[in-house]
Structure formats: C-alpha cells, structure tokens
Amino acid sequence: MALRFYVAGDHQIDQRLLLDSERSNYLCRVLRHRVGDVIEVFNGIGTVSSCKITSDDARKSELLVLSLTSGTKQHGLTLGIGISLLKGQPMDRAIAQATELGATDIYLMDTQRSNVRLNQQRISGKLEHWQKVIIASCEQCGQVHLPRLHPPKPMLQLLPELDQSDTHLVFFDPNAEPAPTHLPAQHRVVFVGPEGGYSPEELAAFARFKATGYRLGKLILRAETMPAAALTLIQQATGWRSASDP
After folding, report:
1. Dist. CA 147–CA 94, nearest whole Å
2. pLDDT of 30-39, one tens digit each?
3. Which residues of the chain does CATH 2.40.240.20 include?
4. C-alpha span between 227 and 242 (Å, rounded)
5. Which regions of the chain carry the CATH code 3.40.1280.10?
6. Is residue 225 pLDDT above 50, yes or no?
C-alpha cells in the first residue's frame, strides 16, 4: 500500500475524513505516522487531497483536508478489458494487474468454457471483494481514477452491448494474426478468454461483430497472466496514455 489512501466522496478544504480500520492500522502501526503528519488522499474520481493527521487511532484515524492538489478528469478514450471468471486468487491478480495497467472498465465475463459459476448471492460478495482489490491496486500504483467494475455477464450478451462504431473490439487467440506494434488511439475493449479458450460459437460471435484477433507469438499464457500481457501490448502500441491524459 502506498502513501496515498482512498476515501470516497467529494473532498473539500477543512473537511474531516476518516480512514477505515485497515488503512488506519497501516498508517499508524506499519508506517508509524502520527498526529501532524501530512499524507495524500484520493477519491477515485480524480481529486487528490493533501491531508493532516488529526487523530492517529489505529482503528479509525482522522484527517483534515488542507488543500486539493489536483482535480484531473479522465480523457475521453476508454480502455476496457473483458476477463473470463477465474477461481480464487488468480482472479484477484488479473483484476489488480488490469487496474495497474490503466483499464478504465473491467467487464467480468461468463464464457462457455469458464470453470467458475457464481450464483446471485456469491456474486454480491465477490463484487465487494474485487472492488477492494481495485482500490488497493490504485493506492499501490498511483492511479487516481477507479476503474468501473461491471458485474458478470455472458460474453455473448456483452459483445452486442459493446459493439459501437467508435469502439475497437480486440480478442486474443493463438490462431490469430500477430499483434501490431502501433495502434491508433480510440475507444477499445480487449477480451481475454478462459483457460480452455473460446468456444466455436464465441469465435463466430467475434467475427460477426468484427472484433480483431491478435496473438502473442507462439506462447499460450495462463488466463490470469493474459490480462496484464494484453493491456501492456495495447498500451505500448498506443503510446501509454494514462486515464488522466488530455
């Protein structure tokens, strides 16, 4: 966890903010900060505040907003990633890496060869957990905009919803063409399939919606590794535009 902490809401000068127990414990017991020290706080929608610690309670620290050091807006282009549901920590790692590599939207996909099936009760708890993963990743990497986390949906339903004239749909498949080294900056959604790959029906849907297929050499990566590799490639090919670039 970095020295910038997440607190939701619209921050104002002289406002008092409370850190939750996890962040308070990290601030006071791990980093050993005390009353009077100054730290940074972000609200997930672009505002970063300089704050003074007014209470160093390891269970509920209190901060006073001194100044708003930035208020950046996201640029108009989006970089979404569709991730097929994975079991346990591999899903956490995939979401964390997608956040750190600049995804603006994370679409959770139920593909025909997914090895995870979630009922409605489990989905609610998982979404809350994954949102915490996103927040911790933003704190770690310095990202001040939280990616939007979209609830799980069958990929065959998601594709037509994302099929827009100004959005470039990309999927990775070992039988596709080599990935390019240069791509124009535009709205883009990258799809990463499950360990078992896409079904024939899903590959036909990509063709129907004119999605572009790419491959990464001759290697076949694990599903948890592929989101990071795919986003790194796309970011490199488009010049590493961060979410706050104009």
Report:
1. 13
2. 989 999 999 9
3. 4-71
4. 17
5. 79-238
6. yes
CATH T-level topology, domain 4-71: Ribosomal Protein L25; Chain P (2.40.240)
Length of the chain: 246
Any residues with CB less than 8 A from the CB of 239 and at least 6 apart, and which? 185
* Per-residue pLDDT tens over the stretch 6-54: 999 999 999 999 999 999 998 999 989 999 999 999 999 989 999 999 9
Greatest Cα pair distance, the chain, in angstroms, is 61
Quick: pLDDT tens for 114-136. 877 767 778 888 999 999 999 99
- pTM here is 0.89
- Tell me the pairing of strands 167-178 and 212-215: parallel
Element (H, E) at 139: helix 120-141
User: Does the domain spanning 79-238 belong to CATH 3.30.300.30?
Assistant: no
H/E stretch holding 181? none
Please give the angle made by the CA atoms of 74, 80 and 85, to the nearest 5 degrees.
140
